[in-house]
Amino acid sequence: MAQTKTRIPLYLGLTAAGGVGYYLYSAGGNPKVAEKQFEHDAAKLSAKMKGELPGREHEATKKGEELAVKAGATIDREVDYTRAKFTEAEKNAEKLAAEGRQKLDQVRKEAGKELHQTIDNFDKTVERKAVEAKNGISSWFGIGK
Fold first, then answer.
1. Residue 138's pLDDT band (cuts 50, 70, 90)
2. Mean pLDDT, to the nearest integer, of 70-97?
C-alpha cells in the first residue's frame, strides 16, 4: 500500500503564494508597494501582539521584523521569477509574430503567383477563342481560309 503523505507543506506553500499574490494584487503589481504594505501589516500585528502579551514586546518586535524580512525576500524572489517568465514569454511572442509575418508574406506571394497565372490562362483562352470566332465568321463570308 502507498504511504499517505502529509499535505502540510502544500498548504503552507499555497498559503504563502496566496499571501504574496494578495499583497502584489493590492499594490497594483508594484513589489515595492507590496513590501511596504506587508511591513505595515506586520508592524500592526506586532503592535497588537505587544498589547496582548505584556513583557514580550521585544520578542514580538524581533519576530515581526524577522517575518517582514522573510516575506520581503519571498516577494523579491517571486517578482524576479515573474519577470523572468514574462521576458521569456515576450521573446517567444516576438518569435511567433515574426514567423507569422513570414508565413503571411509567403502565402501572399503564392496567392499572387496563382492569381497572375489564372489571369494569363484566361487571357490566352479568350485570345484563342477570339481567333477561332474570327476565323469562323470570316469563313462565312469567304474571307480567309
1. low
2. 90
pLDDT-wise least confident of 35-44, 53-62, 129-138: 53-62
Neighbours of 60 (CB within 10 A): 19
Q: Residue 53: what residue type?
A: L
CA 10 to chain CA centroid, nearest Å: 26
Q: Which helix (H) or strand (E) holds 44?
A: helix 31-52
Q: Is the Cβ–Cβ distance between 70 and 81 less than 8 Å?
A: no
d(CA 75, CA 100): 37
* CA–CA distances in Å: residue 139 to residues 47, 53, 58, 136, 143: 114, 121, 119, 5, 6
Indicate the burial class of 24 (C-beta count within 10 angstroms; 0-12, 13-18, 19 or more): buried
